[in-house]
Design a protein that fits this description.
275 residues, mainly alpha, globular
């Protein structure tokens, strides 16, 4: 049943996201072509600036749209009129929330991938135009070497990013659920913002306590680097290294995400207040 719920969610969100992704990719290609056809070889002309601004604007729009869809789909599907239908399905509240969460996480990951592709298109064209003063081939070779040396760290930080996204999504879900409780339903927007702020303060406090107990050897190594003998390979190797601190913070994020999930589902089970 979880698969069917997710399929329904993907179709609902995909009607907005997939055309938007296509539009973003098309505009990024156009921006890259603008840079390619620019007559200036190595100067930051208006074409470069416009191209970069277009990509940046699309990147911001993608983030905003993703957040709005996360809020809209959860609120509309579970806490408004559509919720009457959803809660008659032979599934638990946990399954309903899990389907929303996994779909939101999927589209956040897709948005991140599309954004990376768009930025890469413009960056590649920019590098091509600067090839007279920058050895692009050597740059790509060095990037490949850094990637191959730090594949484990890269995978870890991708998973860590997914954990961060999960905490964000579930924080929004819990805030929306709380602001639909009878005591807060008259002022949903204000109460929702207040709850998000409170939850973020709690999460920051927990993170702060962890910071006071442990220190990141990775951060200390970056801070202690000798600026006079700066080495790009050493910097990336250090940034992508994984220590005890990073592992603990990753586990902490997973624990927070689980707590937020069960907090949301418990409120839906015990204190549901559909509009």
């Amino acid at each position: 049943m979880l698969g069917k719920l997710m399929k329904y969610e993907v179709k609902s969100c995909g009607r907005i996201f997939f055309p938007f992704y296509i539009m973003v990719l098309v505009f990024s290609i156009i921006a890259a072509l603008f840079i390619n056809f620019d007559n200036y070889e190595h100067d930051f002309s208006m074409v470069y600036i416009i191209g970069m601004l277009v990509v940046f604007a699309l990147f911001v729009s993608a983030i905003v749209l993703t957040i709005l869809l996360i809020v809209q789909r959860f609120s509309k599907s579970l806490l408004e009129e559509e919720g009457y239908l959803m809660f008659t399905l032979p599934v638990s509240e946990k399954t309903l929330v899990l389907s929303k969460f996994l779909t939101s996480l999927l589209f956040i990951i897709l948005t991140s991938i599309v954004s990376i592709v768009c930025i890469s298109l413009v960056s590649t064209m920019f590098g091509y135009k600067m090839s007279g003063i920058v050895d692009v081939g050597n740059l790509l070779k060095e990037a490949g070497n850094i990637f191959s040396r730090n594949i484990g760290g890269i995978i870890f930080y991708i998973l860590s990013g997914i954990a961060d996204y999960s905490v964000f999504i579930l924080t929004v879900y819990l805030a929306i659920t709380i602001c639909h409780l009878p005591k807060f339903s008259k002022h949903k927007v204000l109460s929702g913002l207040a709850v998000i702020i409170v939850l973020m303060i709690i999460q920051s406090t927990i993170g702060g306590i962890a910071d006071s107990i442990m220190t990141s050897s990775r951060v200390q190594a970056i801070e202690n680097m000798d600026v006079l003998f700066f080495n790009v390979n050493q910097l990336f190797d250090t940034m992508l290294s994984v220590g005890t601190y990073e592992v603990v913070m990753f586990i902490l994020n997973i624990v927070i995400a689980v707590a937020l999930f069960f907090g949301t589902t418990t409120l839906l089970e015990k204190k549901l207040n559909l509009e």
